[in-house]
Amino acid sequence: EGAKWLAYGLNNTAVYWSPSVIVLGGSMIIKSPGISIERVSHHLKKVLTIFSERPRLAKAELGDIGGLYGALEILKQNNYL
């Protein structure tokens, strides 16, 4: 059920921004047994029908800590670190 609802959200993301890749990470993807990239992709194929080619779904390589690296980079770019 969670994979289906995530696919609906990704549909909105894809329609609005038209990305070629959507990277999924965090505890929802890493720790939820019912939500896998494969299941989300399966549901996304059903709902995202306006494009001939759907964005590729990829699992975040940094897992749960990817957001921390992004936040640190923003702090560095704004001279807070």
From TrEMBL:
Per its UniProt record, what InterPro entries does this chain match?
A: ATPase_NBD, ROK
Name used for this protein in its record:
ROK family protein
Provenance organism: Candidatus Doudnabacteria bacterium CG10_big_fil_rev_8_21_14_0_10_41_10
